[in-house]
Amino acid sequence: MSRVRILVGTRKGAFVLTADGTRRHWDVSGPHFGGWEIYHLKGSPADPNRLYASQSSSWFGQVIQRSSDGGKSWEAVGNKFAYEGPVGNHLWYDGTQRPFEFARVWHLEPSLTDPDTVYAGIQDAAMFRTTDGGQSWRELPGLRTHPSAAQWQPGAGGMCLHTILIDPSHPGRLYIAISAAGVFRSDDGGETWRPMNRGLVSEQIPNPTAEVGHCVQKHWDVMRSDDAGESWKDVGGNLPTDFGFPIDVHAHEPETIYVVPIKSDSEHYLPDGKLRVYRSRTGGHEWEPLTKGLPQSHCYVNVLRDAMAVDSLEPCGVYFGTTGGQVYASADAGDSWTPIVRDLPSVVSVEVQSLP
């Protein structure tokens, strides 16, 4: 029978949750790196036991950790993230120019085919890659030196490259998202990049339809592209609000989408105190609230950008973690939910591995 492994990053350590294919009973391991912020941890599709974690502390800085046995043991690997060539400037909150400066690693995205190759998205926004299992990291400077970089500006959480997607059907095609610059696409393995923001509208910036400058998730509206990011359209439909962080897609049904709306950009908690995952089976526009097993009163948590994931089993499993430390699982594509754990530290990221 297949197994499932959930990798949970929190404000105070990492946790590994495992179950068989029924997804009814879970074993919990952790905290690993207790007391450290774990912005992201993810497994290699090429070798499921190879895991990578971004460990961060305002006191002790950044550490990259690697496991070769599915999270039972860990080793610190290379941790030097140096911009290549002249650093350059970006906009600061007050509109002045400020040089790029490394703060932390926000996202790790292992290669689909090589367990030793991993992409890293950092703050201040840049893209790095290792090809030796994390021992050394080299910037792909074509992104940070893009002509638009001087216009990039931090979002509320800093100027972070928070999302990396590898296109499995187009070798060399990568997508990244920067807060607050927008979406970019590379078709040559990260050497060169183009902004992919046509159709995005952000009323809170001086030019709401600018080529760059958008805060993506995307906070305002749920957007869809059917042409590899060349253009976007709003599919928010009947959602209760137009603000939120996570979005995920059913593993076997590309028109089935999951989101968790929150109240607003200034009030980062659930509308009406109800924890509701919304599902569309039509690629957007038409949404239904999924509430069975979720608290429907006095619940004021948030679900962050990287804190939702799906497995590839049948039926598809959906998982998310909250800022209140709960991790919820649905083994029936969202129809019903159960809490795996309730009292972890605030959850930052959730990733899922479907194992043989």
Task: Describe the protein.
- This protein is mostly beta strands and 356 residues long.
- It has a single domain, classed as YVTN repeat-like/Quinoprotein amine dehydrogenase (Methylamine Dehydrogenase, Chain H, 7 Propeller).
- The chain contains no helices and 28 strands.
- The strands form eight sheets. It has a four-stranded antiparallel sheet with strand order 3-2-1-28, with no helix packed on it. It has a four-stranded antiparallel sheet with strand order 4-5-6-7, with no helix packed on it.
- A hairpin with a 7-residue loop joins strand 12 and strand 13.
- It is globular.
- The protein starts with a strand and ends with a strand.
- About 2% of the residues have low confidence.
